[in-house]
Specification:
single chain; about 100 residues; alpha+beta; Alpha-Beta Plaits; 4-stranded antiparallel beta sheet; 2 helices; globular
């Protein structure tokens, strides 16, 4: 398994909707035998420019251990999820 850092921005809806969306995104990793090391909530911030007509977004950074297929599935589901404004997946170097 490789170590990945995933940053994603969610639409700023109600708190319950945001927590539900984060738990669904985390479950994609855990359901496919991945391990989540940390999830950092960076909070609601103003975007530098409007994305999908949104001015603000809720930022999260997640560090996880997963294989390539798990990350591909996360990427696929994040692309079709209309509450995810942007996401970025970075493979961290082995130490």
């Amino acid at each position: 398994m490789n170590k990945y850092e995933i940053m994603f921005i969610l639409k700023s809806n109600e708190d319950e909707a945001i927590k539900k969306e984060v738990s669904e995104l985390k479950s994609i990793i855990t359901d496919m035998k991945g391990k989540i090391e940390s999830v950092d909530e960076m909070g609601n911030r103003k975007l530098a420019y409007p994305i999908k007509k949104e001015q603000n977004g809720y930022y999260y950074v997640m560090v996880c251990l997963a294989d390539k297929d798990t990350i591909s599935e996360f990427d696929r589901k994040a692309r079709i999820n209309e509450n995810v404004i942007r996401h970025l997946i970075i493979k961290l170097d082995e130490e």
